[in-house]
Design a protein that fits this description.
Length: 213
């Protein structure tokens, strides 16, 4: 945890309930150890969506569809969401969750490897949520910039690696070193890419919010 645990508990204690369907799907996801966006990230996303009012959202990393459903509830009624997932076991659960929420006509799930799918997309998006394999963010970046509209918002989740990001490469467990160096490179590129303006926020597991100039 990168923020003091008591502070997170305090902030989360102020949260109001989500809709019944979101509460149910969140509970089911947590019970089955499916990683979904944390409470503090949920309210951050709700505010961003209320400000940006996106009409075409792209999500990389559906899991069981929790964040796609949350975004669908807090984006304008006419907003369409495209979400990408490659894990076969999660795909039918996500589809069933979209059906349970009555959102099948608003959310399209693209099945397969995110990089391959991103390369084939042509539409522009005014909000992109990056929440898949952290080591791949750097590879998704050129495609994501290409697909993001000017004035669009890119949200990249889990960018501070539970605090490991500030440690030297050698202080990080060997199995996490590749992610560590790729995530550092990704954050550097987000901050130095001419087309983007980015802020890195120590919220949840770290979030980077960028806009395309
Ligand atoms: C953190 S979870 C997404 C959680 C979801 N956004 C939510 O908050 O409800 C990340 C998901 O990305 C998927 N993923 C990882 N690598 C991927 C890839 N290369 N292509 C497509 N999906 C991928 C994983 O299978 C996993 O379900």
């Amino acid at each position: 945890m990168i923020v003091d645990e008591r502070m997170v508990t305090f902030i989360n204690s102020l949260e109001t309930e989500n809709s019944e369907i979101l509460e149910t799907i969140e509970k089911e996801a947590l019970e089955t150890f499916v990683p979904i966006i944390r409470k503090e990230m949920q309210s951050f996303m709700k505010v961003l969506l209320a400000i940006q009012k996106p009409l075409n959202i792209l999500e990389v990393g559906t899991a069981v569809g929790f964040s796609a459903l949350l975004m669908s509830e807090y984006a304008p009624e006419e907003c369409r969401i495209t979400t990408i997932e490659k894990y076969e076991k999660r795909i039918p659960i996500a589809k069933e969750n979209f059906r349970r929420a009555g959102k099948e006509d608003k959310i399209t799930l693209l099945e397969g490897d995110a990089l391959e799918i991103l390369k084939g997309l042509e539409e522009k998006y005014d909000f992109i949520f990056m929440d898949a394999a952290k080591a791949q963010y750097i590879n998704y970046m050129p495609e994501v910039i290409r697909l993001l509209e000017k004035g669009g918002v890119l949200v990249s989740d889990n960018v501070l690696q539970d605090g490991d990001i500030i440690e030297s490469r050698f202080a990080v467990e060997r199995r996490n070193r590749t992610i560590h160096s790729r995530m550092r490179e990704y954050l550097y590129r987000l901050k130095h890419e001419e087309q983007l303006l980015t802020s890195i926020i120590p919220l949840g597991d770290g979030v980077a919010i960028s806009t395309k100039k």
